[in-house]
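worker-03 picked up job from queue 'complexes'. Input manifest follows; two sequence lines, order preserved.
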Amino acid sequence: MLAVKALDTIKQHKADQPNGQSGNNQGNDAAPTRTLWADALRRLLKNKMAVVAFFWIVFIVLVALSADLWVPYLLGSPTDIDTTLAAQNSKLPPSALHPFGTDNLGRDVMARVIYGARVSLSVGVIAVAISTTIGIVLGSLAAYFGGIWDTLIMRLTDVFMAFPYILFVIAMLAVLGPGFINVFIAIGLLGWTSIARVIRSAILQVKENDYISAAKALGASHLRIVVRHILPNSIASVVVYATMSIGSAILTESALSFLGLGIQPPTPSWGLMISEGQNFMVAAPWLMLCPGIAILTTVLAFTLLGDGLRDALDVKVTD
Amino acid sequence: MSETDVLLKVEHLYKDFPIDQGLFMRRFGAKVSAVYDVNFSIQRGQTLGLVGESGSGKSTTGRCVIRLINPTSGTVSVDGRDVAALKGRELLAFRREAQIVFQDPQASLNPRMTIGELISEPFEIHKIGTKAERIAQVKELLDKVGLNPEHISRYPHEFSGGQRQRIGIARALALRPKLIICDEPVSALDVSIQAQVLNLLASLQEEFGLTYLFIAHDLSVVQHISDVVAVMYLGSLMEIAPVDRLYDYPHHPYTQSLLSAIPVPDPKIQKQRSRILLAGDPPSPINPPSGCRFHTRCPIAQDVCSQKVPEMLEVAPGHSCACHFARPNPIPQG
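worker-03 finished. Artifact:
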């Protein structure tokens, strides 16, 4: 509450200044110059859950990126197995030396969770980037040109949506073969349908506005109308949807690795670790719980951030 | 009126909209006949007021004129060139000659662009001037329409309705067009603001020699700004006449009923004068009435009206009326 008040005070302070300086005759009640995105950021910062989620994501990203600098020295290698000590170090419960314990081959679980974050986050971001790009292009074509384009593209999405998603991904990986890059491709190529629907409906709303007619009357090209007028006004829902689907992409990767179709051992991935850990569920529950909690918190963080973004971006223009 | 300096000429304009957009439904051929055989012309520097109820096809006519939509048939010529035939570069060149001001200034300005970006967009599209020149032009335009040029980096939602409409006018004016379609530019504004915007439009017309096609449903607004007034009903023109003649000697029963509906600011006269009340609502344009489109609601309709489409006949110089039984019936104005 205090922070909000402080923000408002700053805002008012800023509002007074330009008017005072320019000495215009429009009155001091005119709103200060600011962008709608800055407004959205201000609203987002008021949402505590979203802020916490954002910092959690930033924390995970930093830890995963800096892993090479400290993890091997403090916790040990996430992949290499020291055969002489493996039996001795196997399935040690969490301790000061191994905060998350060790797995059946004597590797540090925390090190593996941290390196697994690299896989999960890059799958989340890259696969969603691929599917969002495809979704935006196809959804825009369908909504903007309508007619036969709309019919063809939307029936295509119906066909894609009619298949059970996870089975489709499995079938695709069976064709492409398991592997890091192929997981991106499979999830990315199959996830675009919902994005295409979201952007299509947003554009259908926006394109009826007179400012689109005005741009046409000025002679603007189709590309210009879509890029400058339609997308900036319909992208908000896609931003929200994409953020949330990062979570589901991470889950899909986990499921695929769990099934043995995704990341191949010894590279750690959260899904793979759960898959391996389930054999020792009773004797060494931390083998499953640690990567499980990592997935839970990360997916939850992306979902909460998406939720916050929706509230921040979806507000009608206030006068 | 001489025929020598006609800027806009619309001949036999028709516009149908197919109703069923589905892949297999089109064959049934159901359509809305939005504009039906409309003819008029506007002299350079003059204003034609186009009035009619909502759904009478006046906006559709305006949008056909500047090729926002393609007419089903008929010709629209601006400065002697057929607008419907323009393509590519020629169409782009035509965009510099004809512009439009919309009804709802809120919906006609992109909320994510500053007014500087909005008004300089025409220059960007037509590759006119350098960045600095564009900014100077925008500031000049803002000044012309009565806005503070320092507000160039503000967003539309930071302005009032009247100010936003001024932004819309500045954008339409940017390319120095000859013809501006004003599509109910003041209907969405407060009455107190309407007069200001109308006066602005009038002074800009004088300064730049603009020609207006002024679309409205408010007869008193049209009377104020027009040289010639055309009355539309269900997609067809009913009557067209110089403004004073139309208001003093309306011939068409529809025009007469519209004029009798304008309230007179004098209770005595308002009580005494007779109003022509039309029964019912306008029929659906999907199945428009045969013959004269107005005959279902016309107080003086006879058998012939449902069989034969009345021709547009000149009853006085510059005054034409489409009615089998047209007769002058001046309504006392007090």
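worker-03 released lock.
The two ends of chain B are 29 Å apart (CA to CA).
The CA atoms of residues 116 and 247 of chain B lie 42 Å apart.
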